[in-house]
Design a protein that fits this description.
By secondary structure, this protein is an alpha+beta fold. The protein contains 10 helices and 6 strands; from the N terminus they run βαααββββαβαααααα. Helix content is 40%, strand content 16%. Strands 1, 2, 3, 4, 5 and 6 form a 6-stranded mixed beta sheet that branches. It starts with 17 loop residues before the first strand and ends with a helix.
Length: 265
């Protein structure tokens, strides 16, 4: 986490033909959707970095926080980089701090800087933030290993700021092949035997069927079924189910509706 620079330190702007803009108004952020997603498609088109995902996150998890969205434009105004931040009050080791944090939390899975040139964007964004005395700590969480946001870490260290990293979240995932047969071919015999045994146990309780929901008008009903199913287990007993927290419920519900509208659910 970078600290404020020495009072007499001179912080030069990066020598690039670009400009940093800071967006604090939600309407102005919403208006960036088209060019934001175009930049994502050209650089790292993951759902977690797309504008609609971040908008839904901000609306539900940071509705009253101050937006600090940084964008970098070239000399003709083309969007070159984007970094969505929020300003918050917090504590670190018991000390009150003014924190600039990534627009992410445990429900985000990952976060990163969007940029065509990470080194240029990282230097420009950190130079912009270093001239601002309104924050004490910059915290970016769940950046994937080798992510572009590490350029800000490098820029902070180059300027002599205290900076560091910690292991936060590991998300297991399975790359899906083109066919079901190919997927089964990757599994060992013992694993497949366990799947068959468990399926038989389920079939003893009743018929198993798979239903795919594609009609948006049916989403609300099936979403409620899913949320109730989750709440019926240990999460409900522990008070951590999605339906038991207004912000979390709003995030997943709105994300599902948005994905349905985009034909992506």
């Amino acid at each position: 986490p970078p600290a404020s620079p020495r009072r007499n330190e001179v912080i030069p702007a990066p020598a690039v033909e670009s400009r940093v803009e800071e967006i604090r108004d939600r309407c102005a952020f919403v208006s960036l959707e088209r060019e934001w997603n175009a930049l994502a498609a050209e650089t790292d088109d993951q759902v977690f970095y797309r504008h609609e995902f971040l908008r839904v996150w901000i609306d539900n998890f940071a509705p009253t926080d101050q937006l600090r969205v940084l964008v970098l434009r070239d000399q003709v105004g083309r969007l070159e980089a984007a970094l969505p931040l929020v300003a918050r009050r917090g504590r670190m080791y018991g000390v009150p701090i003014r924190e600039l944090s990534s627009a992410s939390n445990a429900h985000s899975c990952r976060f990163d800087l969007l940029a065509r040139d990470a080194a240029t964007a990282g230097a420009a964004f950190f130079a912009h933030l270093a001239r601002d005395r309104s924050w004490d700590v910059l915290k970016l969480t769940d950046v994937p290993e080798g992510g572009k946001a590490y350029a800000l870490l490098g820029a902070a260290r180059a300027r002599g700021y205290p900076a560091g990293t910690w292991e936060s979240l590991r998300s297991p995932h399975v790359p899906l092949p083109a066919t079901h047969a190919e997927l089964l071919g990757r599994l060992d015999g013992k694993f497949k035997a366990n799947l068959r045994r468990r399926r038989r146990k389920l079939e003893e309780k009743g018929r198993i069927s798979l239903e795919r929901i594609e009609v948006s008008g049916e989403l609300a009903h099936h979403l409620e079924e899913g949320l109730e199913l989750e709440r019926s287990g240990w999460k409900g007993r522990g008070g951590t189910a999605i339906a038991q927290d207004e912000a979390t419920r709003g995030f997943y519900s709105e994300l599902a509706r948005t994905a349905t509208d985009l034909g992506a659910l």
